[in-house]
């Protein structure tokens, strides 16, 4: 019988279960990666720069947010701040995952953090809402994370090499929007998330003409604050009943 406190040993059944759970999302992840790869080349990045960005950053939303800023030669602090704010949600993900794997060495946590993605973390937390030790927990997470990372990199690298060959009239940008929507929709099932997305969308439209694309930064910040306020208000109402 597997020891629930043994996080290191590989559990083949849990690994397969993780892969199977994440399998339906891989096509959308790959399509999104393809679009970001094309966008990097179309934004003027060289082949080594684009490959370095997709392998080191591995954050589609931050990459897409920073590319227009890079193209217009925005100040470096604006580019980094935008990427940081767009990816602040991973601080929340880290806080949610930390109790599950607190006994792992720091370098293993660092590696898992690098390959973590939105949907993979969300699917893991659905399967293991309790932080108590459970057999195969780490193997299940790896079964979600590794195929997700591979799907993104395959799509992104393909987009990088095909970037100059794909005509603009093919509407790749629109395909990217559809891919992002496919990834986004399952994540806005809760009321706070939905409110945050709606408010962020409204702010992004109103602030679309701000210089250096700062409207996107403002939309992310206002959307996050809205989601947090709605979540806290809902929790207080439930506690008062």
Key descriptive features of the protein:
241 residues, 12 helices
Task: Please tell me about this protein's structure.
- With 241 residues, the chain is mostly helical.
- The protein has twelve helices and no strands.
- The chain has helices at residues 12-22, 26-42, 47-56, 60-71, 76-86, 89-97, 106-115, 118-127, 137-162, 172-184, 191-206, 214-240.
- Helix 2 (26-42) crosses helix 10 (172-184).
- The longest helix is centred in the last third of the chain and has 27 residues, at 214-240.
- The radius of gyration is 19 Å and the shape is globular.
- The model has no long low-confidence stretch (mean pLDDT 83).
Brief rundown of the structure:
The chain has 241 residues and is mainly alpha-helical. It has helices at 12-22, 26-42, 47-56, 60-71, 76-86, 89-97, 106-115, 118-127, 137-162, 172-184, 191-206, 214-240.
Instruction: Characterize the quaternary organization of these chains.
Output: single chain
Biggest sheet: strands, sense, closure? Answer: none
What radius of gyration results from the CA coordinates? 19 Å
Number of helices: 12
User: How many individual β-strands?
Assistant: 0
Give the low-pLDDT segments: none
Helix content: over 70%
- Mean pLDDT, to the nearest integer, reads 83
Question: Structural class, from helix and strand content?
Answer: mainly alpha
What spatial form do the alpha-carbon principal axes imply? Answer: globular
H and E order: HHHHHHHHHHHH
Euclidean distance between termini CA atoms: 43 Å
SS strand fraction:
under 5%
